[in-house]
Amino acid sequence: MTGPVEGDDGVLRCPWAGAPGVMRDYHDTEWGNPVSGEAAYLERLTLEAFQSGLSWSTILNKREAFREVFHGFDADAIAAFDEGDVERLMQEPRIVRNRRKIEATIVNAQATVALREAEGLESFVLTFRPEVPPAPESTAEQATTTPESVALSKALKKRGFAFVGPTTMHALSEAIGLFDPHLVGCHRRGRA
After folding, report:
1. Which residues are listed for Zn(2+) binding in this entry (predicted)?
2. What amino acid positions are annotated as catalytic residues?
3. Would you tell me how many other CB atoms lie within 10 Å of the CB of residue 64?
4. Max alpha carbon distance in the chain (Å)?
5. 140 to each of 17, 136, 137, 176, 184, how far by Cα in Å?
C-alpha cells in the first residue's frame, strides 16, 4: 500500500499511473474529470462493465473499437440491437467478446432510453454523489465500494440495468468525477 509515486518525469501520480503509456495518459487527462451527456455516461458504464475481471489497460486499448461497434454509445442505436448483432459482436476481435457483457450493454441502452421519461441517466447518476468525498492519502485508504455505489447499483438494477454491481459503480463514480478519486499528493488531486 502506497501513496503517490514519482514518475520518470518527476510528477507525483496515483501508483497505477506511474509509468508512461495509456494508463498514465488516462490518469492525467480523463480519470476523475466530470463528463456530460447521455452517451458519455453510457460509454463509461459500458466500459466499466466490460472491465470486470480484466485490466483497465485492456479496455483502454480497445476503446476506439468499442466506440465504433456501439455507434458512439448512442443509446437508441444500441437498444435496437438484436441477436444477429450479438452474434456479429461475438465475432469482433477488436473488443472483449463476452456474450453476457454484450447483452448487458443492449439491456443498459434500453434502460437508458426508458430512463429518459424520468430524469435521464446523467441526472440520475449524479444524485449518488457522496456528501463527504473521500481524500485518501494511500492506496490502503481507497475503497472499492461505498454506501453511494451500493445505492446506485441497487437503484440502477431496479430500473432494469445489468452488470452494475457496487464495485463497478464505484469505479464508474471515480471515472466520471462524482468525487475526486486521486490520492492526496497526486498532481491531479483537486484539478478536475
Report:
1. 14, 27, 182, 186
2. 26, 48, 56
3. 10
4. 50
5. 16, 8, 8, 22, 13
Split into its structural domains, the chain has a count of 1
Reduced to 3 states (helix: H, G, I; strand: E, B; else coil), residue 42 is: helix
Q: Is residue 117 part of a domain?
A: yes
Is position 27 annotated in a ligand binding site? yes
Residue 185 in any domain: the answer is: no
Per-residue pLDDT reduced to its tens digit, 32-64 = 999 999 999 999 999 999 999 999 999 999 999
Domain membership of residue 115 (yes or no) is: yes
- Is 14 annotated as contributing to ligand binding? yes
Is residue 49 a part of any domain in this protein? yes
Phi, psi of 13 (to 5 degrees): -140, 165
Domain carrying residue 56: 5-175
For residue 131, the domain's CATH number is 1.10.340.30
